[in-house]
Amino acid sequence: MAQASKQVQTQSQQQVQTLSPQQVLAVRLLELPAVELEDRVRAELLENPALEEGREEDNANDEYTGDTDTQSPEDGGDTDYDSLSDYLTEDDIPDYKLQENNRSRDEKPEEIPFSDTTSFYETLKEQLGELDLTPHQRQLAEYLIGSLDDDGLLRKSLDSIGDELAIYAGIEATPQELEDALRVVQEFDPPGLGARSLQECLLIQIRRKMERQQPSPEPLLKVERDIVADCYDEFTRKHWDKIQQKLGIDKDTAAQAIREICRLNPRPGASLGETIGKNMQHIVPDFIVETEDDGTITMTLNSRNVPQLRMNREFSDMLEEHTKNRANQSKESREAMMFLKQKMDAAQGFIDAVKQRQHTLTVTMQAIIDMQRPFFLEGDESLLRPMILKDVAERTGLDISTISRVSNSKYVQTNYGIYPLKFFFNDGYVTEGGEEMSVREIRKILKECIDGEDKTKPYTDDELTEMLKQKGYPIARRTVAKYRQQMNIPVARLRR
Fold first, then answer.
1. S-S: 427 plus which of 279, 360, 439, 473, CB 3.0-4.6 Å?
2. CB distance 150 to 312 below 8 Å
3. How many other C-beta atoms can be found within 10 angstroms of the C-beta atom of residue 84?
4. Element (H, E) at 311
5. Mean pLDDT of 125-145
6. Confidence of residue 70 (pLDDT cuts 50, 70, 90)
7. 470 class by beta-carbon count within 10 Å (0-12 exposed, 13-18 middle, 19+ buried)
8. Are strands 287-291 and 417-420 parallel, antiparallel or unpaired?
């Protein structure tokens, strides 16, 4: 008799992190700058009838405190409905939206200018709307458009964008689907949009010229393409002789092709902004930081254009009416009650998410002010101390990814101008003696040395290193070279 086989059962623990719909909503609102938050709030007001604009008055006398247990229309079982007092208390009032009322009557409110010009994002979405794409392709292309930087280039990898789509938008996309969507974006005008590098940006522009001259493009365009595609390193280093040898072209042809390449636009997004008035568009700050003569620093959120939110009274009354007659409810009445409850839950969740955004922004900006207090007092960039995302995260108790979302696309208005939040983050350099220096401060001194040099005999990296040491910045030559490259300053022989 054959022996029965045994099945071995094993147990294993696995951590899987999932975000609830409320957490996803909070993350999305956190990433929005002030202007986009206003649009998002107004869209929610249109979509959810349980939410309305206006201040919530004292509802203490109108609260419903009766039992709201009833049966679900599907299975007839008991479903616990929260008391209406959960929704009708004055806690529903988003107090961050009442800042304007907290101002002194004699205090003149800060005027925040806003431009009505078409945005870079909207212009690309208009081009996207003219294409015949599937809904999935349109979603991917729209997300890629939103991921472009101000120059119109895509600095993120497609793998990271795929992860973001899955986590935050619940959209699954294969690498090939993202690649195809990127090709769609790269067909937009002006040429070069969606490129992942300067080299790809130039190639897109050259190939677009060749397509327009089909079937017989100019021979010079082929030389331009070969230089950028096959001799890019030599081109960036201005090694013209090596380009001629590698491609087997004469000096005049190489010089003419190089001149044409230099006329291409390395920042297609910026050029688009110029044509539609983007450079005329005023930045709307998310924070307003004011420094008084006595050293007092005050910070407020710029939420003056965001509508105040409250629960809709008619919805509350209808739900209360349904709960009073729950004993004789029909199926239609129970379904109506479920609908009312669902909309009120969504409205309350949205109010909570906006309040959470306000709290997170406030504590993050306050931490930045505390850590960069000398700058906010004097306005001197050299006073910025080394500060990274981790420093702010530790001070606020928030996650580093949360601090990153707050600092992205957010601006602060100060007595000395409007700055992106990323401006206040910079690495530090620690000397052998343990002294911590700001990288931004070192770069500033380095640039001053280079700007004051004799252009017929520019300083080498070794000479710059010695000059910085004399000024009290004892850093290594390779560090000088790194900072010089970060400021897009070429080596000495190319600065002549």
1. 439
2. no
3. 22
4. strand 309-311
5. 85
6. very low
7. exposed
8. unpaired
| 331 backbone dihedrals φ, ψ, rounded to 5° | -60, -40
Residue located via tokens 């380095």: 446
* C-alpha 145, offset from chain centre: 12
> pLDDT, tens digit, for every residue of 268-318?
887 555 434 444 446 788 899 999 888 899 998 887 677 778 777 777 667
3-class DSSP state of 444 = helix
Q: Confirm if 169 and 193 have CB atoms less than 8 A apart.
A: no
Which residue segments constitute the domains of the chain, with CATH numbers given?
A: 19-114+282-426 (no CATH), 117-190+268-281 (1.10.10), 200-264 (no CATH), 428-494 (1.10.10.60)
- Count H helices, E strands: the chain? 22, 10
Distance CA 343, CA 50 (A): 6
- Kindly tell me if the per-residue pLDDT of 390 is higher than 50: yes
Cβ-in-10-Å burial (0-12, 13-18, 19+) of 94 comes to buried
pLDDT of residue 128 exceeding 90? no
SS3 category, 333: helix
Element (H, E) at 297: strand 297-301
Q: Are 127 and 165 in contact (CB under 8 A)?
A: no
For Cα atoms 201, 204, 209, give the angle at the middle one, nearest 5 degrees.
130
CA 167, 423, 125, 53 torsion-angle sign: positive
Looking at this protein, which amino acid is placed at residue 245?
A: Q
